[in-house]
């Protein structure tokens, strides 16, 4: 019954890699950080790589014919190659660096939605999406008239594949945009199935991997999707850098969103010619130091091994599922078969915001609210939002026990 | 018995828990002269406030509906109790003093003018130690200003 992580995964040792985890907190309690789904903590190697870049090898990229600029350019492009390997892209040129996954999805809404899709084509999302995968499509709809369809989810928080099939059936959907893992329900969606269904009806597929890419090995070729995005700061990397992967033939057809330096091959006052991908989408000075940090983060999780991380998190999910069930008055949101380490819940006696204030006193960092997924909370009749605990590779079973104990006491406090 | 959260009793005093669980004046006023909606977009708190004026312009009745955390609900509940009988200017003045209390924990120049009212509202002063919660306590008062000024919406952002 106990699905223990492989012996090579030593969480105590891993915790030592994260300086913040040993920082004394207010009132001398250890930090119980259960908000990695919002943004993860940074290992020493990421911090050091960024400092080292600035101390020894920093200059603008793609511009100077001098050694430092070449060094910086090499580091920046090496980050692209590491990212391509990380998700098994065929070629590093398929990797576009963005600010975060929100920008990546907006880039697809702009480049593919406005630039390639026809106004008569629809976009199909789902009820479990983050606002970042809702609002850009509403903007596209309001701007160009593309219908926005929403695939239902079941009460257990899984995609309703019958509804998906029904909403694809008329062949009008040009793009299916769906989260690979929900940031509220923890649900991991059956992406291979979704891709097969969408492609059978002539629709392309964008997957929001903001959560999934952190918790399991992503292979874009095996999944077969058309676009995939994720965000550096949730993957133990820095803020300010995200990734859009796209099939090269799609990226080639997409017009850029921003114009400026570095994205053109030829400029006169009459016209400019765009540079080839990915430079076409990276106008202006990019997040150089952040790319170096992302590279270090990717190397870090790769060295530990995504399968080992996944196994560790699976054991945490099992533990949390059974432990949280013992907290009186607690209702878990979502009960998907395939799920990752994100648990949103409601406690009968306490509003999420009050609960977060209490838990903070106990040194436990959780998020309260609607987690940028307001329609999802409305779907479950939870207008007040939920409290969410989300795990990272450094999360321990003891931390989940501390949470469960604190929740039980918090309920007494408010009753 | 000592509990994990004992030192939070300053923030969640019995009065607040009580008003949070059983808010007073929690109803619609069908004959309201002024209503306003208050939103706290950060946490999803939302209230709808109803005011009925007496012939002399003072606040004859105040009531609210909505959803929110214990602090915002208790604050709205206590507010509807304390502003009854006040003129619009008095109610706004009281609101300004309350906001100072919520942000700093004290209100040195509250003087004697609203001594009783401020004493009733004092249990909410604990929020000043929780910057992210001050807005919960002040939402109702922002909404009151909006209603008195004839605006339809208020936000505590
Ligand atoms: C599923 C999902 N999509 C998109 C995002 C947006 O990520 P970012 O804010 O880095 O753009 C998040 C994170 O908040 C997320 O969890």
Features:
heterodimer; A: 415 residues; Aspartate Aminotransferase, domain 1; Aspartate Aminotransferase, domain 2; four-stranded antiparallel β-sheet; 15 strands; globular; B: 157 residues; alpha+beta; Sufe protein. Chain: A; four-stranded mixed β-sheet
What does it look like?
Chain A: Catalyzes the removal of elemental sulfur and selenium atoms from L-cysteine, L-cystine, L-selenocysteine, and L-selenocystine to produce L-alanine. Chain A: It is an enzyme of class 2 (transferase). Chain A: Its cofactor is pyridoxal 5'-phosphate. Chain A: Belongs to the class-V pyridoxal-phosphate-dependent aminotransferase family. Csd subfamily. The complex is a heterodimer of chains A (415) and B (157). In chain A, helix 2 runs antiparallel to helix 11, helix 3 packs across helix 11 and helix 4 packs parallel to helix 5. The longest helix of chain A has 20 residues. Chain A folds into two domains: 130 residues, Aspartate Aminotransferase, domain 1 (Alpha-Beta Complex), CATH 3.90.1150.10; 256 residues, Aspartate Aminotransferase, domain 2 (3-Layer(aba) Sandwich), CATH 3.40.640.10. Chain A is α/β, with parallel strands linked by helices and 415 residues long. In chain A, the strands form four sheets. Chain A has a seven-stranded mixed beta sheet, sandwiched between helices. A four-stranded antiparallel beta sheet of chain A has the order 11-12-15-14, covered by helices on one side. Chain B is an alpha+beta fold and 157 residues long. Chain B has a single domain, classed as Alpha-Beta Complex (Sufe protein. Chain: A). Chain B has a four-stranded mixed beta sheet with strand order 3-2-1-4. The termini of chain B are far apart. At the A-B interface, helix 13 and helix 15 of A face loops of B. The complex binds pyridoxal-5'-phosphate (PLP). The site of pyridoxal-5'-phosphate has 14 residues of chain A, from helix 4. Pyridoxal-5'-phosphate binds next to helix 4 of chain A.
């Amino acid at each position: 019954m106990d699905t223990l992580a492989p012996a090579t995964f030593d969480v105590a040792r891993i915790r030592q890699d994260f300086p913040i985890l040993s920082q004394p907190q207010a009132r001398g309690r250890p930090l119980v950080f259960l908000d990695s789904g919002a943004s993860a903590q940074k290992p020493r190697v990421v911090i050091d790589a960024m400092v080292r870049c600035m101390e020894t090898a920093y200059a603008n990229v793609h511009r100077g014919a001098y050694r430092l600029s070449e060094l910086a350019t090499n580091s920046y492009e090496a980050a692209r190659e590491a990212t391509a390997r990380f998700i098994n892209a065929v070629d590093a040129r398929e990797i576009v660096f963005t600010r975060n996954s929100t920008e990546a999805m907006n880039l697809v809404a702009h480049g593919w939605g406005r630039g390639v899709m026809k106004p008569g084509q629809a976009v199909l999302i789902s009820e479990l999406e983050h606002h970042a995968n809702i609002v850009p499509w509403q903007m596209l709809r309001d701007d160009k008239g593309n219908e926005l369809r929403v695939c239902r989810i079941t009460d257990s928080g899984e995609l309703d594949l019958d509804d998906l099939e029904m909403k694809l059936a008329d062949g009008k959907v040009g793009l299916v945009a769906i989260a690979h893992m929900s940031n509220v329900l923890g649900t991991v969606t059956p992406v291979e199935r979704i891709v097969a269904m969408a492609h059978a009806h002539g629709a392309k597929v964008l997957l929001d991997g903001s959560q999934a890419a952190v918790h399991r090995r992503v292979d874009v070729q095996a999944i077969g999707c058309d676009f995939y995005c994720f965000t550096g700061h949730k993957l133990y990397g820095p803020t300010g850098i995200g990734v859009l992967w796209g099939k090269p033939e799609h990226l080639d057809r997409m017009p850029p969103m921003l114009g400026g330096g570095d994205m053109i091959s030829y400029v006169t006052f009459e016209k400019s010619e765009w540079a080839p991908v990915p430079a076409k989408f990276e106008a202006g000075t990019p997040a150089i130091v952040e790319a170096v940090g992302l590279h270090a983060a990717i190397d870090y999780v790769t060295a530990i091994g995504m399968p080992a991380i996944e196994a560790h998190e699976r054991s945490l999910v099992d533990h949390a599922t059974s432990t949280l069930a013992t907290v009186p008055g607690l209702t878990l949101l979502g009960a998907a078969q395939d799920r990752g380490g994100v648990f949103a819940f409601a406690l009968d006696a306490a509003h999420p915001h009050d609960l977060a204030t209490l838990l903070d006193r106990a040194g436990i960092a959780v998020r309260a609210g609607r987690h940028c997924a307001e329609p999802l909370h409305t779907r479950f009749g939870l207008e007040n939002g939920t409290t969410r605990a989300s795990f990272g590779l450094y999360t321990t079973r003891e931390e989940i026990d501390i949470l469960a104990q604190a929740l039980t006491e918090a309920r007494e406090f408010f009753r | 018995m000592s509990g994990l959260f004992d030192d939070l009793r300053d923030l969640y005093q019995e009065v607040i828990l009580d008003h949070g669980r059983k808010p007073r004046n929690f109803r619609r006023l069908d004959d309201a002269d002024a209503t306003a909606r208050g939103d706290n977009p950060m946490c999803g708190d939302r209230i709808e406030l109803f005011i009925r004026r007496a012939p002399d312009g003072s606040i004859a009745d105040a009531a609210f509906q909505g959803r929110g955390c214990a602090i915002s609900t208790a604050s709205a509940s206590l507010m509807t109790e304390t502003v009854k009988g006040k003129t619009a200017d008095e109610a706004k003045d009281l609101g300004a003093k309350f906001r100072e209390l919520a942000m700093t924990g004290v209100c040195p120049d509250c003087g004697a003018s609203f001594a009783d009212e401020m004493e009733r509202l004092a249990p909410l002063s604990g929020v000043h130690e929780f910057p992210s919660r001050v807005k919960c306590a002040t939402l109702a008062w922002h909404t009151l200003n909006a209603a008195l000024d004839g605006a339809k919406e208020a936000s505590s952002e």
